[in-house]
Design goal:
The complex is a heterodimer.
Chain A: H1 3-23, H2 27-52, H3 56-84
Chain B: H1 2-22, H2 26-46, H3 50-75, H4 87-109, H5 130-138, H6 142-163, H7 186-190, H8 198-201, H9 206-211
Helix pairs in contact in B: 1-2, 2-3
Classes of the chains: A mainly alpha, B mainly alpha.
Amino acid sequence: MTVAWYLVVSALIFCVGAAGVLVRRSPLVILLCLELMLNAGNLALIAFSRMTGTGDGQIFAIIVMVVAACEVVVGLGIIVALYRRRLPIDVDQLRRLQG
Amino acid sequence: MEDVLFFIAAIGAVVGAIGVIALRNPFYSVLALVSHLLSLALLFLLLEAQFVAAAQIVVYAGAVMVLYVFVVSYVGGQGEPLASVGPGLGGVGLVLCIGLFVELSIAILGSGLHAIDTDGAKLGPGFGTPGQIGQLLLTKFLFPFEIASFLLLVAAVGAVVLARRRRGIDAPDEPLPPRDRLELTAAEVMRIPRAGSQAESIGLGQEEKEEQGGW
């Protein structure tokens, strides 16, 4: 398969993730959709790494994985903190939560 | 053979992604994401990225998803109505995303990169192996590697601060805020009632506690 096929799959996954962020209201599912978008970026990076024949894109993909893990940890920590305060787990009702 | 594997993995990845946003129960969404990640690891293997594929399965599908499953079970995976933002707004979101996909496809297919229509460059021996990745991480990309490790440390400390549960110095019957009061600041959410303070976590304030009858 040519590299363009992988990039189209990556674009499709990214758009599904973006649709999820826009449509869903539970912060848990929104975090999952962010994972989808980051993974789509990873797929594109690795496809380009295959295209150029250098390993640089794979290093980028690993760094993206690290960033995704950090984002998950802090995001889930905030969700647990919200749950402890008995706040609704719903981003529409938490729209004033901006510091 | 490679083409067949590509289509199997690509369809699995896209179906898994749609499952994440289409299933009502967050628990099933997490499971759909796991199947999506496994299909993606197969795609990585087809692109000769063996180490990243292994890391994807071990770190993502293994560790990160277990974290999700724990939090979903803790918070309680109550289903929410799909498209709960109202039909108009949900439709706008879907149209935006389809437009984004069309735009990205035009950008990919009309790009000036000539190598995009090939199977990729000729690969040297050892492409994508742990040896090559490790060598790159410790020579050419040493600085991003160190920054990433520092970021992980900060995230770990932040998670402990956010989610700790400890008996506090505060009065144990500190009232919770009423449920319908939603105008909270971020600082209020972060400071969990009865969770104790930072001073207590390093052992200060223990003396008064013991005078009051211990923990």
